User: What shape does this take?
Amino acid sequence: MKEKITEHSIKLFEKKGFSETSIQDIVDSLGVTKGTFYYYFSSKEELLMDIHLGYIDELLARQEQILGDDMLSCKQQLFEIVFMLISSIKGKGSSAKIFFREMRNLSENRLAQIASKRDQFRLNVERVVRLGMEKGEFRSDLNAAIVTFGILGAANWSYQWFNPNGVSSDREVAQIFVEMILKGIQVD
Assistant: This one.
């Protein structure tokens, strides 16, 4: 039942927004009582936090798998991370929207927990960029922190426009992004 509450809440939060969705809306969509909701969650904010943690923890776990693969070059790791972010829209697009759009509705303490996990994800990407610079896979004159923000900004914002059933596949979009990141768009 906890998973059903979460699933229905994600759909409602995506459609109506967190603030405009009441606990009554959630339980009505499931045909259960508020008591059922409160059995699993102490508040709507706790539910929102659960959604945030589920999203970022899964991304971090998948990122760790990519970073733990010693057979991948830094370029390949960068591609796999960007591909992971874009492909997650297929199954987790609504969660991504909630993650980025509704973060402002978390208390300061809960927001700090999420922010530290987001920072960890970002710093892991920055580490790939720095290592790629050291190994000569990427230009040595880059500002690794700014490049990382650019990569994540492009990939994370794709939840707003990327259509998994559209003309370009998630893999194609990731390839275009990484090629643009690595080579730019200027003709030499």
Observations:
- The chain has eight helices and no strands.
